[in-house]
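Notes from the 1:1 (GR / supervisor)

We went over the backlog. Supervisor wanted to see one worked example end to end before approving the batch request, so GR pasted a single chain during the call. The sequence is below; no edits were made to it. Supervisor asked that the structure be written out right there so they could see what the output format looks like.
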Amino acid sequence: MVATGRGGVPPVGPLTPRAKWWALHTVVSIAAACLLWAFSVPGFSFFLLLGAVPVLFLAGVAWAIWVEMFGVRRRQWSWGFLPAPLIVVLALALLVAGAPLQARWAMSRSAFEQVVATLPKTSPVGVEWSSVPVPSRIGAYRITAAYPVPGGVVFYEANGYFIDDAGFAYLPEGPTPDLETSDFESPVFKHLGGAWYSWTASW
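Structure output shown during the call:
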């Protein structure tokens, strides 16, 4: 005999995997992965960021409704509530630590070093930068141009920094004021290890 609730309507059973809330966790996982990938470049990938943030927001709203309906109102707790927020917390912790860029760069560094070995080591001071041919993909990054500069080489990465430029630099002696030009304004360098830096700059 099937138990019935008020008005003869069968009561809603407890939340189970059959409710397919795994779909919410899957969406959160994909959006978090896109968010991490968006920040694995020297600046950030604007379009990936533009897609990931709204999805995470909507997933957060859906999660809150889920917890309210199946947890708070029924006074029932389920471990099924935890994956989505834990995924978000982990993603934010990795972003704060700069892990996406460091991990992707670690996979690409040897490829960049092989390219640097074939390029001119310097550009004469006082002479405008002249680009040199490089592969359009180096390691896990798409590169649009490379320039020998005083003390090293500067690579432009395809994603840029929203409306500004971004990339990598090989500078054994570190960044110097000579690097700033009218097309490379106010560069900001972040050390990646050894002679390598990521950079963002205006144009």
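Supervisor's comment: Residues 1-5, 9-18 have pLDDT under 50 and may be disordered.
Batch request approved.
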